## 1
Amino acid sequence: MPAKKGYKKKVPVKKATVRRRPRAVAQPKDGMNLLIASYFEAQYLQSGDGDEGKKLSYTIKCDPKKCTILNHEAVKADHSTPGSYLSNGAGASLIADNATSGDLSFTKWGAFSANFNQYKINSINVQVDVDRECGLDNPVSFVTDKANSNALENMAQVSLQAHKSYTMTETRRSAKYGWKPRDAQDKEWRNMNQDLADNNAHFLKIHQDIEKKANGICKHRIQVIMSVSLKDSKQTLN
């Protein structure tokens, strides 16, 4: 049907896409938000014949006050001896010889937390950079667990839980993972003078099977970043 004289066809107007900004964490009254970071390294040295069935597997407790790192086996303080070794990245052991756990410290947390009576966790993120010696066949897997600090023993345990796995390539040897509190109990404020019990804590678990290689050294470089809020100051802030 021919268009009527004087009639102009309406062209639909495309609406502009509205970009939403990430929701910022509300600044607490009589308090502050804080981003804190720390770093450690985990490595496994294989024997001269190469070790079958070995792994890097460790757990990070989601607590800035006492961020415990737990390894799946007792570590070797002498990193020239075959076995697991965890350090602060500057030559000092993070976990003592023949122990399975040690505490990761956050410099900014120590500087500010002493001024407040309460804190809460907003999020935690980790980045794991993987050495070439770890190989390309076995993925790096991440699991979040509550009330269970035990490190993962094998890929069967990984697959039975909600998890993320990243396969490394020659050009990409890094993986990221994170956790945010979801329920009311995890979002509540905690007193500085009380420790977060393991049965109320969340744990990030990292696992990678190691390819058999004589004298091979598989190393993970781990950066841990936490967003926390502090309130109920003990003194007037300048």
## 2
Amino acid sequence: MIGVDNSSSARKIYKGGYLMLRRFSASRWVRTAMLGLILVTAACFPVLADWSNPAGGNYANPANWNPSVLPLPTNANFTLNNTYTVNFTSDATASNAYFNALNGAVTLDLGGHTWTVGNTFNISTAVNQWTNTVLLTNGTVNVLNSGSVAVNISGAASCGGTLTLANGGMLIVTNGTMSVGGVGPGTLTVSNGGSFIVRSIQDGSNFGLGVINLYSGTNVVLSSFNFGYNTGGTGTLLIAGNSTVLVSTNTGGALIGMQGNGSVVISNGGTWLLDSGMLGYNNGNVGASILLTQAGRLISGAFNLGNTASFNTVLVSGGSVWSNGSLNIGNRSGSYSNSVWVTDPGSVLSNSGAIGVGANQANLAGNQLVVSNGAQMFSGNVTVGSGAGSASNSYFVGGGVNQASVSNGLITIGGSGGGYNTMTVTNANLTSGGLTIGNGSSNNIVTIQDASLWNFGGGAISVGSATGASSATGNVFSFKTSSSLTNIGGVGLYDQNMTWSLTNQNLAPIITGLSLGAPGLGGNSLTLSNQTVTNTTAASVIGNGSSNNVYSPF
């Protein structure tokens, strides 16, 4: 109790921001001071009111609020355990909006108007086993908060919040973050013409499950989009429907499995336009995934699997990936067993930049790229296994009933420091800008298991390293029939005891030359017949510090 006057003429008590009069016989100046204090108190403390009409009604009607207030509440609290509709007949504002019912559902029918919320739009419940549901239709909720979390869709450990945008309902959060699934589960669904524009999204944080289902609209994320935001959190995203587009314009990209786990499904003609992406960012993540199926499309800039995380997977089965940047499968040291599978007719991986499979960093092991059963792939250079300790990475082309079709730039199996990396070709039509096996590394193997056609595009085949035994040994190129190899722009056999016979127009019209042997490595043999070469742009080298190399010209 603050400010007590026990005089006989008046007693006034100011407690908790409210002035109460026990007697009204005070002098005129006391009454004037009281009025001023009431006005100051009303201005300093937001009006908090609970929606009180279980049948629903007009947002602008004071009778629907407790207490009945004008102006309308700056903090709007919806706690009734009923299913009802709140109608908007004009634009409206609030400082905060809280949806904290134990059950039931609230429909916000905005009637084509905009509800502007200055701070927080919060859908949650603190009592286990209940779900708080909000449906936004026919208008826009604009949340202005520039702080960390502007929209929160979550709950307690085993309960949660749900927000659905439908029938022209739109959510705009251009300054703050939308969190879906925090301590408890949260679900965001966009369907039937709903949409959103948000600055950033955290999907699955603080051990919560975040679920985002997009069935319609063009939805935009202006900044970061993080799935599995914290350790123990899980974030999921579904993009489905021919008219469904998610546009991520941010330069920071999307992190799927940031510290927790994340998964994305793009299907039924849905499209994700992504500036850049990372699948499996931190080692707290285990097994983040992307599935593209039923004409689902991912259109991206640079994309990486496994920043320091492992067991992350992209599966393209009846969908497509279109990238104008690099693709790295196993991106940083210690990232292993990440994979990209492109399989079945209608599946496409088109990557204008380079592809690295366990490449460019140390200790990248067990990563793989598979293109099979009628799938198509188009890319720049492909490097499998590069960097100290980057071993047992693989590239598999073909397999299945339908012939795979692949066009790459230069393919390198085993770059500097990498070893025991493999490439296998079967039932495929392959074009590349040449092939290098073991360029500064050992025990790398390329195998053509059948009569698959490989057009080398005028590029050379190089096995081993021209610097010799200290850099590369035990590298192998094994092919079933030489007739499947065409347009070879040169041959370099830099390992030892290799015997090749090319007998059926295998060489390109213009070649860079033929080289056998390297310092300390010899015993190589190359026999050529039935070849037509019009020009050689470089001298052939036989021996180069080694012995017993045999060249039988055509």
